[in-house]
Design a protein that fits this description.
Length: 376
Amino acid sequence: MANVAIQHLTKVFEQSKNRRLIAINDLNLSVESGELLVLVGPSGCGKTTTLRLIAGLETPTAGSVSIDGRDVTQLPPKERNVAMVFQQPAIYPHMTAYQNLAFPLILRKTQRSEIAARVNEVAGVLEINDCLQRTPRELSGGQKQRVALGRALIRRPALMLLDEPLSNLDLHLRAEMRMVISRVNRSTGCTMIYVTHDQSEALMLGKRLAVMKEGIIQQIGKPLDVYRHPENLFVAGFIGWPAMNLVRGTVKKKAEGSWFEQQVGEVASTSISFEIDGVQFRNAEKLAGKEVILGIRPENLGSKPPAGGPTFDGTVEAIEPTGAETYLRLRNGDFAVVVRTENPEGVSINQKRSIGFDLRFAHFFDAKTGENLLIR
């Protein structure tokens, strides 16, 4: 087990004489001993580069990486006691699963009796005891990834880095491997940093999430905290599927109080308008005339709005059943919302429906900065 402290980490790639790519921009991150932290963000945001900097496979332009209080920024990878699992299960095709697992210990000239004990221990944790005498061509995709995970674990590293290890597996195997990784983290206490672009996977797997965009961490927190209380518009739109519904509008002062009014032109026949005096905003006195974005998730829309809540009248243009839940897309002119329902009976394409907004779960974002304006 090890804690990790990353301070002001920056990585700039010099692409040509006059062109530079800032892959990581002044990144600060701490990972507790034994924690499973998920680094999540869209492709190209710097997740894998961050892992490579921690592992020592890239040299930072600035900043430092410390593992268990020891500055490893200038140390080669082999001296960091870090293991890395990649997207492709990099195992030797001519070796059996047992030989693949044992290979790191053989290189360290570990005694045969200890090798056998540790291989059986790791195989038991990963539930691949019956696969040890098979070669990779005789293994399924999930079994291959377990062998790759086991080969990293058998070294007993201080830190394990996982770079989208499940992205090539089918849905069933991904669910199975998520449970395996979570179980391994709990049973071994190994500190893990897991990279993925799949925000659903991040919510299910991580003890904490670090959401990245363009080399900058946007928010760090427990999965449900990040989901329920996004700090900015990017996090709100990226975390959660289907994405949060967003309505652009303006805060206007009227004789009876402050009102949110949807931007003119977004809908053809009706617009969303409601009083917001009961909502607690940061710098509320500066909101008058300010352009904001209302955000509300599909599960917080329904056919029966709370008293005083606004409604949206639209036409059903898509019905997307997922099993226990169904998602409806309603459109009015060039504006649409997605609604989650557990009872799609009687709903049909082109049907007119009125949807209510539950403002207890609404968010308001600054249209220019993306900052969440609510006081929670």
